Amino acid sequence: MKSKQVSVRFLLCAGLSIFFLWEISVFAAPQSAPVSGPEVYQKRCASCHDQAGSRAPAREALQKFTAKHILRSLDFGMMMSMAGPMKREEREAVATFLGTGAAEPGPPASAFCAAGSSALSGPDQRSWNGWSPSTSNTRYQTAEQAGLTSSQVRHLNLKWAYGFSGDMTSFAAPTVLGGTLFMGSAGGMVQGINANTGCLYWVFEASGPVRSAIRAVRNGSSYSLIFTDLNGGVYSLDAKTGRLIWKHRVEEHEATRLTGSAVELNGVVYIPAASWEETRSTDPLYECCTFRGSLSALRVRDGSVVWKTYMIDPPKKTGVNSSGTPQWAPSGAGIWSAPTVDTKRGVLYVTTGDNYSFPATATSGIQRSCCRRP
After folding, report:
1. Of all helices (H) and strands (E), which one includes residue 347?
2. Torsions phi, psi for 44 (to 5 deg)
3. pLDDT at position 31
């Protein structure tokens, strides 16, 4: 495991970490053998799905679904709570083993806007860009900005509705710009939708569920749409066409989970990173834990890294658990929410989550109930 580091100074204030210089660390992930789908099924699934009289669907029923449908259920559907301890490669392997390789049908032709229509062709007013319309994360607009007063809310009526096919939940905040609504979904589909009629301009399929709000950043005569997925991917799309401009990972850790929305300033986007590695700790054979929360600054034009900093120091082996499995610390302190930018002071504010392994660190947000001991 190799790393390269530059010194970092920080100030703690009410659970917030304020960074002035930035740490850069890169770790080489160990190579492992390919995961066997049948073995994962026997270990994780067979006790329910192969049991006669079980309320869980039988294996024969699962084999009628597509691999994408099964993976979506494991990622953020009916089986998410059961799949939490599974690594990403295990979920992919068992979904491929069980499901068919058939492609899932996309939206019908009737759902799309008329030929020749274009995203961002509407008025620029009454917009909401990203998690908050300002870098301060206030999530507030005046009546003039919104085109709506509080007294008018009671008189609103449904104009149109859009369904996310195959999803059980909708959790991404929409962005509205130029008469177009941009929104991700639990199934990983990102849509460009006419805000007035609900018709589709385009659809893009990400590699995992998209929970973050999409940030539109001016790029020449158009906009780049910056967003993340729950499997660690960061994307830039052309707002008019939905075409992929670039895609990167900001963390190589397999349990990386990106939920916090990006913020942008002067052509640089700031990407917070968290993970669900904590759920892996229920497996006594898992080496818990090595993930570290981080914040990455990427150039909008190509996704290249400007700087990157971690919330805690690199993990070290602290001992073994009762099964003899090596244990590591410190870990955790993920950033789950959108950063806040203080343009006057040139400072970013981020909030951190708990540590995953003992001992607790001063830069984690939850220290009283920390942590999993070896």
Report:
1. strand 347-351
2. -105, -25
3. 52
| Angle, alpha carbons 206-232-134 (nearest 5°) | 85
CA neighbor of 130 nearest in space, from 185, 189, 174: 174
Residue partners of 284: CB distance under 8 A and separation at least 6: 321, 322, 323, 325
| Residue 62 to residue 213: CA distance in whole angstroms | 32
Torsions phi, psi for 353 (to 5 deg): -95, -165
- Kindly report, residue by residue over 102-148, the tens digit of the pLDDT: 888 889 999 999 999 999 998 877 899 999 988 888 888 888 888 88
Element (H, E) at 47: helix 46-49
Domains and CATH numbers, the chain: 1-31+250-374 (no CATH), 32-105 (1.10.760), 106-135+168-222 (2.40.10)
Largest CA distance in the chain: 65
Residue written as token pair 């639990």:
186
Measured between alpha carbons, how far is 151 from 126 in angstroms, rounded to an integer?
17
Mark the ranges of the chain whose per-residue pLDDT is less than 70: 1-32, 366-374
Cα 199 from Cα 60, distance rounded (Å):
37
Residues 6+ apart with CB under 8 A from 156: none
Distance CA 278, CA 255 (A): 9
